[in-house]
Design brief:
- The complex is a heterodimer.
- Chain A is built from 16 helices and no strands.
- By secondary structure, chain A is mainly alpha-helical.
- In chain A, α5 packs parallel to α10, α5 packs antiparallel against α12 and α14 runs antiparallel to α15.
- Chain A starts with a helix and ends with a helix.
- Chain B is of the alpha/beta class.
- Chain B has 2 domains: 168 residues, Periplasmic binding protein-like II (D-Maltodextrin-Binding Protein, domain 2, 3-Layer(aba) Sandwich); 174 residues, Periplasmic binding protein-like II (D-Maltodextrin-Binding Protein, domain 2).
- Chain B is 45% helix and 14% strand.
- Chain B has 17 helices and 12 strands.
- In chain B, β4 and β5 form a beta hairpin.
- In chain B, α2 runs antiparallel to α14 and α11 packs across α12.
- The longest helix of chain B is centred in the N-terminal third of the chain and has 21 residues.
- Chain B starts with 5 loop residues before the first helix and ends with a helix.
- The chains are: A mainly alpha, B alpha/beta.
- The interface between A and B is medium-sized, with 31 and 36 residues.
């Protein structure tokens, strides 16, 4: 009888939970399932804004007005702006000085933290503080420290006789202003370098140092011939990330100097904001923010290639 | 239980379904169930008591009308970017407080509020010229004039008396006085940085010397002139002999703070520096006073900074938003209360209110009458336009002055500014 056959069929089918479990056991389904949320986030929060930025950069878009494509006009015209040329130079000076200082100080700090110290854990925790505090908040503190009227830096310098009155005008003169933004960036980024390098140091086998010591190698030779070569992959990754973050820094300059004086501390992100939002030329602003994309893409490719070559 | 036929049930289901689909598609709740709520974006007023009063008036408005009002405040330097992001995303606040020529910049995005301004003008007289210049765009009011803040000369009267210094009457007199003040450790405080006070003072000095950025026709860039050279040279010697390099890093608040904290001996600012010193009972408050604006070879000119309230076109609450403006500015007692709360920083912008009682609340506001001074908004004598606002937002004038005082040759600094302005005008 037909009804009886159907019942037999239904009884033979495994329950829904089991069927789902079986389906999830298949890698072809489970893999894409896990990747989909991350992919969706990337598409919505990275790919879509990126494509919009590319579109804007190739157009004469102005806030709230109709626009049309103008090709590479924005990219070409930007070279005619001395604010942009100054920003281009600033970005390299700021990134070069900051990353260089963070690298040297980061290695030194990591070597120090790797020693047997009292309160080692507390010190390591304290070192992370600048990295943990929200950048805008900590930079606001620095802006008070560099403020022309209330500067505690100048007050201390004058009290110790290290400066002559009224002391440096940290945020009002271009070289001092660049020094100030680099100093805050180094202060903030140093923990990232130190802790990551420390992780690399801890992973170096002790036997290598013992063998080198037995062969008569001094501290410098041990650092140069063992520590540094074995840290290279870690250093490459840290420098890679830091270069990208520093090039695209916004908060420190925006809070501390607003790009001034006379555009002498503007970075791509702060100039892009000023042109794109404050003056409404969003197409030009997008072009500024995308200007270094090809260069940074090349840096990423080159450094990752270097890291792969360093694998043992 | 009343019976329901199958036909009736189907009819009702279809009607309800269509209604629900309509609500979902339009993403707007039915009028009966919709709470009336509006949001209003303002700046952090330099007379903080007026922000507090605005909040109180807002609460009364909600009580009287049933319309919920959310007031947000942001710092003045962030306003431009905030307007831009709200327009670009077509979302954000219903009402925005605007300064200078911003209504020109966002004309296509702003609701025509001529009906509201018409009612206010019937009641209080015509809007003053600076308010009209700022918000009357191509024959329609794109924002409702709210108040204006006049720039005056704020000085430490006690220090002047102590050193027997004469209150200056011209910008050249100020140089003479400034040299003495700097020697006393109380330099002049004129910002030369990327902020709006720098522009306000820069314009006043330029107009008094006969220099302009753009011609009367609103097209030709006229900054490269002998008069501008005079202005730049004046700034150069002022920076060298009367000020400290700190002015290159100042924000809009810095000159106020310098005067309040007892450092600056003279600043160019609205009366807010004094109001805050007085309200916070700072020791400098008693010594601060104001004197009339300074003159130059081309007369006595001063900067006026009008503010207005606009309603974005994307707002779904245009009528409730207009109702709030009518409540705040259209009720005489409420408008008076609001003006009084800002001391003499927020001055009324309608003709019949110009002799407002707020001016008599403190003898130190006498200078605000400023007889003989001509007030202008940014960009004068060029007619108001979006280009003027773009030149303002690009900080070309303060950057030109900063370049000159830090070593760039006068002609090069002016040529740079001319080139930048031409680019804005061509764009």
């Amino acid at each position: 009888m037909a009804v009886g056959e159907l019942r037999v069929e239904a009884a033979r089918r495994p329950p829904l939970v089991l069927r789902i479990r079986e389906a999830l056991d298949r890698e072809a389904l489970l893999g894409p399932l896990f990747v989909t949320p991350a992919l969706l986030l990337l598409v919505l929060l990275v790919a879509y804004p990126f494509c919009m930025a590319v579109y804007y950069s190739l157009s004469n878009a102005f806030i709230g007005r109709p626009s049309h494509l103008t090709g590479f006009t924005n990219f070409v015209n930007l070279w005619g702006s001395d604010a942009f040329r100054q920003t281009f130079q600033n970005a390299f000076v700021f990134t070069g000085a900051s990353v260089g200082l963070k690298l040297v100080l980061g290695i030194s700090l990591a070597l120090l933290l790797n020693q047997q110290l009292w309160f080692k854990r507390s010190i390591r925790g304290a070192v992370l503080l600048p990295w943990v505090i929200p950048t805008a908040l900590s930079t606001l503190g620095w802006s008070w420290m560099f403020n022309s009227l209330y500067s505690v830096v100048n007050w201390t310098g004058l009290a110790l006789g290290l400066m002559s009155p009224p002391g440096p005008n940290w945020l009002g003169q271009k070289y001092y202003a660049m020094t100030a933004v680099v100093a805050v960036n180094v202060w903030r980024g140093l923990p990232f370098f130190a802790i990551t390098i420390l992780a690399g140091l801890v992973a170096i086998p002790k036997e290598l140092y013992e063998a080198a010591e037995a062969d008569g190698a001094g501290p410098f030779a041990r650092f140069w011939c063992i520590t540094l070569p074995l840290l290279k992959p870690v250093l490459a990754i840290v420098v890679l990330f830091s270069t990208i973050f520093t090039f695209s820094d916004f908060n420190i300059v925006f809070v501390l100097t607003h790009g001034g004086p006379i555009n002498s501390t503007h970075l791509f992100a702060t100039l892009a904001r000023m042109i794109g939002l404050d003056t409404g030329r969003i197409g030009e602003g997008a072009a500024i923010s995308l200007y270094l994309f090809p260069v940074l893409a090349f840096v990423v490719w080159a450094q990752l290639r270097f890291v792969r070559r360093q694998q043992y | 239980m009343p019976s329901i036929s199958r036909r009736k049930f189907l009819e009702q289901s279809v009607t309800a379904g269509a209604g629900l689909a309509g609500v979902l598609a339009s993403r707007v709740a039915p009028a009966v169930a919709q709470p009336r709520e509006i949001s209003y974006l303002c700046w952090n007023n330099f007379a903080p008591a007026s922000d507090k009063k605005l909040g109180e008036i807002g609460q009364r408005f909600t009580k009287d009308t049933g319309i919920k009002l959310k007031i947000d405040h942001i710092a003045a330097p962030q306003q431009a970017a905030k307007y831009a992001s709200e327009v670009q995303t077509q979302s954000g606040h219903d009402l925005v407080e605007m300064r200078m020529h911003v209504p020109w910049l966002y004309e296509p995005q702003l609701v025509d509020v001529s009906d509201v301004v018409g009612d206010l003008e019937k009641k209080y007289g015509k809007a003053i010229s600076s308010a009209r210049e700022a918000a009357f765009v191509h024959n329609a009011w794109r924002a409702v004039p709210q108040y204006h803040a006049q720039f005056v000369c704020c000085y430490r009267e006690d220090l002047f008396k102590k050193a027997s210094l004469k209150v200056p009457d011209t910008w050249e007199d100020l140089y003479t006085v400034g040299k003495e003040l700097k020697k006393m450790g109380n330099p002049l405080g004129i910002s030369i940085s990327q902020n709006f006070d720098s522009i306000s003072t820069g314009y006043a000095v330029m107009w008094c010397h006969g220099a302009v950025e753009i011609d009367k026709d609103g097209k030709a860039v006229k900054i490269n002139s002998p008069q501008t050279t005079q202005v730049v040279e004046w700034y150069r010697k002022m920076y060298r002999d009367c000020m400290e390099p700190e002015v290159l890093s100042w924000t809009d608040a810095s000159n106020n703070e310098s005067l309040q904290q007892g450092k600056a001996g003279w600043i160019h600012n609205p009366v807010s520096a004094y109001i805050v010193a007085r309200d916070k009972k700072l020791v400098s408050a008693d010594g601060i006073n104001h004197h009339r604006s300074l003159s130059g070879p081309a007369g006595r000119h001063e900067t006026d900074a009008p503010r207005s309230i606009g309603i974005w076109k994307f707002s779904k609450n245009v009528e409730p938003a207009k109702e709030w403006i009518r409540y705040l500015l259209g009720k005489k007692d409420v408008y008076d209360e609001y003006i009084m709360s800002g001391s003499a920083f927020n001055l009324p912008v309608y003709a019949n209110m110009q002799d407002h009682p707020v001016l008599k609340t403190d003898a130190k506001y006498a200078a605000l009458k400023n007889e003989g001074a001509q007030y202008h908004t940014y960009g004068w004598p060029a007619p108001p336009s979006d280009k003027v606002q773009l030149i303002t937002n690009s900080f070309i004038l303060p950057n030109m002055l900063a370049k000159a005082v830090t070593g760039t040759a006068t002609k090069d600094a002016i040529a740079w500014a001319e080139n930048e302005m031409k680019k804005v005008m061509a764009g």
